[in-house]
Amino acid sequence: MPGDAATYVFLINSLIPGGAERSLVELLPPLEERGIHPIVLVLNDREIGFQQEVIDKGHDLRFVRSRNLAGRVREVRALLRREKPSLLHTALFDADIVGRLAAVATGVPVISTLANTTYDERRVAHDENLSKAKLAAVKALDGFTARHFTDHFHAVSEAVKASAVASLRLDPAKVTVVRRGRDPERLGRRTPDRRARVRDELGMEESEIVLTVGRHEYQKGQVFLIEAFARLAAKRPGAILVIAGRDGNATADLRSRAQELGVSDRVAFLGHRGDVADLMAAADVFVFPSLWEGLGGVLIEALALELPIITSDLPATREVIGEDGTSGIVVPPGDADALALELERVLADPDHAAALSSGTRKRFEGHFLLEDRSSEMMDLLVSVAR
After folding, report:
1. How far is Cα 234 from Cα 166, in angstroms, rounded to an integer?
2. Is 377 exposed, middle or buried (0-12, 13-18, 19+ CB in 10 A)?
3. Which end of the chain has less neighbouring CB within 10 Å, N or C?
4. In a domain, 1, yes or no
């Protein structure tokens, strides 16, 4: 441990692209500025994502080498006893379970981030890739370790807090909401020059770009966006749907659905991109069609880039865009017809598009600046640490 700095251990599944991963990486510099030494402890070594960024910036990154639960628990427990940190923070299911079990009898307080509405009824009812028996077992393990081996919880939204309190039977007093933030300097602004440059690089100079960002998972609802896009494709011959995000369990279905609907030549699957802010600067409208969600980090980024936003009507997404209609519009989750109608309105009416985005930057600066949210998050961590 360097000098007399307090040490906090941050245990996470991996540093692949994702909201929890991005938020952790962006929290490291302000922690160090406050005199705290963060150790980032990762269960899975992955080249894609933020891992190299953490290494390049000189942060203390370590890996758990064991591949099974018992071995991981022993390894993490040994590190906790060796480093004697003031706090263990866990994020994402595997890390939550390993960390909570590892900290037993070490005296290290544990705080877990709750980042999604994992046990949402829509998921249980409609996700064909989900084993209901497996989910029940996961929920039981998650709830038991949460109630018995976790000192406090950080929820990324009020929606997540309400979901976790109900589904895991948590004490509401032990759950503190701190929403995610984003760095405006990293994201930049949506200028005409930037828009033209990125569109030229994409070969979409004259296109109407409909953008969505997210891994290819059932949760993200991209199949309904493809169906909505197909409904308006004939009316908007210059429109193209851009899907940025890594492959997942829905990739094959998304590609086949675009083929079935005859729009595969107008749906661009870009895969994982490190330049999401550039894509947003080039786009005409941003769509967030998730079926359930914890908060939606890319929604926050779309606010910062002042894009017209169409999002699924979820408790968490309303926390992002607000209620006054100047930061986006909501449609029922999974409703391709409603989504197609709103897309047509945005693309056909520049005044309507401008009205939808008129309050986005103000909303971002008022609620989601990284500096403000990081300060709030650090205060929470310090309050739980020993």
Report:
1. 45
2. buried
3. C
4. no
Both 156 and 218 in one domain: the answer is no
Are 195 and 282 a contacting pair, CB within 8 Å? yes
Q: What share of the chain is helix, strand, coil (3-state, %, to 5)?
A: 50, 15, 35
Closest CA to 256 of 233, 288, 222: 222
Please list the residues that pair with 286 across neighbouring strands: 211, 309
- Residue 351 lies in domain: 184-367
Instruction: Tell if the pTM clears 0.90, that is, is over it.
Output: yes
Sheet holding 208-213, edge to edge: 267-271, 239-244, 208-213, 285-288, 309-312, 329-331
pLDDT tens digits, residue range 14-57?
999 888 999 999 999 999 999 999 999 999 998 888 999 999 99
Q: How many domains does the chain have?
A: 2
Q: For residue 312, what are its two tokens? A: 């699924």
* pLDDT (0 to 100) of residue 384: 98
Do the beta carbons of residue 212 and residue 289 sit within 8 Å? yes
| 86 domain residue, yes or no | yes
The verdict on 284 and 194 lying in the same domain is yes
Alpha helices in the chain (DSSP H): 19-33, 51-56, 69-83, 93-102, 121-126, 132-149, 158-168, 184-187, 192-202, 222-232, 251-260, 276-282, 297-304, 315-321, 336-348, 350-356, 360-367, 370-384
Tell me if 230 is assigned to some domain. Answer: yes
Instruction: For residue 274, give the CATH number of its domain.
Output: 3.40.50.2000
**Of 307, 226, 312, 231, residue with least CA distance to 269:** 226
Average pLDDT over residues 137-162: 98
